[in-house]
Amino acid sequence: MAHLTIATSETAVQKLFNGIRDNFSIDESDSVDFGPFTAGYEVAFHLEGGDVDMQADNSIVVKELDIKWDKLRFYAGIDIPELCIGGFCIIALPFVGCVLRAPEICIFEDDPDIGIDLDLNGLLTSEISLAAKPDLQYVVNPARPAGMNWLDAEDANLANMWKLFIDPEWVDIDIFDWSDIVGDLLENALDNAIDDLLFFLPGWAKDLISAILGPVIDLVRGILDIGDDIDEWLSDLLGVSLGLFDLIITAVADLLADQFPLIEIEDPFPILPYQGSLIPVKLPIEDLDVTFTEDELVITASIGETL
Amino acid sequence: MAFTDNSDLYGAVNEAGINLVVKHLKRQRPSLFNYGTEFIAKTPKLHCHSIDADPMVLLRNNPLMSIESPLPILGTNNLLSLHYCIQFVNAQIDFHKSNAITLPSELGELPEQHFAITAKVCAGLGCPDDRLTDYIEAFMDSFYEAISLDDIVAGKSTANIAGLKTHRKRPDPITIPVDRLECFCLEVFAVCHIETRKVGNQHIFSPKLDNIEIVNLAPEGLENSIECYAEQVIRLGLLPRIRIALEKLVFDQLQIVNVAIKPADSVATNPAIEDDELKVFIDMEVS
Questions:
Q1: Distance of CA B257 to the CA centre of its chain
Q2: Is the pLDDT of residue A92 over 90?
Q3: Does residue B157 sit in the same domain as residue B239?
Q4: Is B107 among the domain residues?
Q5: In a 10 Å sphere around its CB, with 0-12 CB exposed, 13-18 middle and 19+ buried, how is residue A12 labelled?
Q6: Is residue B260, in this structure, part of any structural domain at all?
Q7: Same domain, yes or no, for B123 and B157?
Q8: What is the mean pLDDT of chain B?
Q9: With an 8 Å Cβ cutoff, are A279 and B251 in contact?
Q10: pLDDT band at B77 (very low <50, low <70, confident <90, very high)
């Protein structure tokens, strides 16, 4: 029997998920200038929606998490050296100078002269769904010489680790979440139409009309999302991503997940640090286990008899 | 039934786990459990109970005992003192229902939502043998003025009677050397529970002592006095150090959300001491 049991309810995980989702945003921009060639990007997004569902098969599913692109702009340009033709003197008089010049035409005066500017600010919504399982591994520090005792390993920062990885089973990314994009556009159009056509109505009446028409827009969102829902349902059922792009994403996610553990627990685990010359007190952790059930995440561990 | 039916988070540790923690603590920090004079600390053969320390403790020259001052012999003006040691040999915890510790009849049955602690305490005094005492007695005789009956009859102040000889240099204090300690062991049992109270933004889980008993100690006054002393040590010295505070925590993996945690209201007894476990039910708010 495990000595220690820790459990987190699905509700708590959903609360944590919501908190991270609502507080997480990215706003990045950068540009490079190689003289005649310039390029840059502006990217900002936040997260909306989404749902967490724990499954009886020891997995967790994140459904339909929207990535709202607040800024999505890529630009690049080439600055061609300015080239001027003409401007030479046609008639020159003594003591007067040039009285008639050929017209001068310059091209490539701008900087950059040729460029693309892909600006999708506020237009796009992407959607991500994924399923993952916990993958707990005991990792013997590869740099630790054989026979090194636990205290020398502590001093040399070579302790072994329990590492909890999140192993993605499948990842489904809709770069263009048409249901939300069209839904948002419709909603904006509806709000504008109500404001323009029914300007004489008080605010509460406009809100009432918006509320009445809201379900229609939700229906459109739902209809447009049906294909994607089927795709995700099948992915969930088969445990594999459908679609080449999703397979690639899953492979990349697998690779990344394998590199970055979610939690690392030192073994033996320190409970008292060095105090002067007194050695630290550490507990051997055995039989660490992480399991998802339909209701909760359960972590169990035992304390070993000997270090 | 899920662990978290009535709360967001649940944590439980059983008595076997806590007893193992104490065991590791005792082997890796033996000086927390063993106290004695410097000579006793350096002479393991004199210990009342051999100390089972982790090999790393010896390898790093960590102390097996915390050094304490010797016990002064009263009346010697701190010239003479005795070696001693006190060792906490076995410490064990038993959460309700009681099955690991057999409580003495004086403490009765372990009540629900309570836990029992037992510890075997061994102590020893470095009592010199009679020949050494005879020698030291003769030595001490030479330092004191003999009581003069003439002085008493003459009504001189008793402050000067049997005082140290003023013409002799005061010797350095001596702790009488010994080659063995006179050891005895006591079994101490205690019954405790845990109280929860709110102080500011913190919810404090405080262990509280209900009753203590030292078995087979006579006379009764001696037993009561030692129990009283042990109670003061536990209530005033030990338990205040192991209160656990729940307060606002920051989720330290992503550093982007604050997680405030508090004891779950929907659980009647929280923390609960039952099924040989200490269980804590916690609700959390994320912002």
A1: 42
A2: no
A3: no
A4: yes
A5: buried
A6: no
A7: no
A8: 87
A9: no
A10: confident
Residues B97 and B59 occupy one common structural domain:
yes
**Whether residue B166 is found in the same domain as residue B90:** no
Rounded to the nearest angstrom, the minimum Cα separation between B287 and chain A is 6
Q: Are residues B36 and B160 in the same domain?
A: no
pLDDT at A106: 80
In eight-state DSSP terms, residue A253 is H
pLDDT class of A99 with cuts at 50, 70, 90? confident
d(CA B53, CA B63): 10
User: Closest to A23 (Cβ–Cβ): which among B12, B59, B256?
Assistant: B256
Where residue A242 falls among pLDDT bands split at 50, 70, 90? low
Specify the range with the lowest mean pLDDT, choosing from A14-28, A257-271, B92-106, B235-249: B235-249
- From chain B, the residues in CB contact with A150 under 8 A are 56
Write out the residues of chain A at the interface with chain B, using a CB-CB cutoff of 8 A.
1, 3-9, 11-12, 15-16, 18-20, 23-24, 149-151, 262-263, 271-272, 277-284, 293, 295-296, 298, 302-305, 307
Give yes or no: residues B139 and B52 share one domain. Answer: no
Domain residue extents for chain A: 4-26+46-72+120-303
Whether residue B283 is contained in a domain is answered as: no
* ipTM, two decimals: 0.80
Helix residue ranges per DSSP H, chain B: 15-28, 38-41, 55-59, 130-141, 149-153, 220-232
Looking at CA atoms only, how far is residue B1 from chain A in angstroms?
A: 9
Question: Alpha-carbon dihedral of residues B154, B159, B160, B162, nearest 10 degrees?
Answer: 100
Predicted local confidence at residue B23, as pLDDT: 94
Q: CA separation (Å) from B170 to A267, B69, B83, B142, B165? A: 57, 20, 22, 11, 9
Q: Which two tokens stand for residue B202?
A: 């913190």
**Based on the domain organization, do B168 and B182 belong to the same domain?**
no
Which domain does B157 fall in, by range? 130-173
Confidence (pLDDT) at A234 = 55
Q: Does residue B58 sit in the same domain as residue B161?
A: no
Q: How far apart are CA A39 and CA A75, in angstroms?
A: 6
Domains identified in chain B, total number: 2
Closest CA of chain B from A24, distance in Å: 7
Cis check for the bond before A36: say yes or no (omega within 30 of 0).
no
In a domain, B276, yes or no: no
CB contact under 8 A, B12 and A12: no
Measured between beta carbons, the chain B residues lying within 8 angstroms of A279 are 28, 54, 56-57, 60, 62
pLDDT of residue B165: 62
Interchain CB distance below 8 Å, A298 and B253: no
Contact A7 B284 (CB under 8 A): no
Give per-residue pLDDT as tens, B103-146: 999 999 999 999 999 999 999 999 998 999 999 888 888 777 77
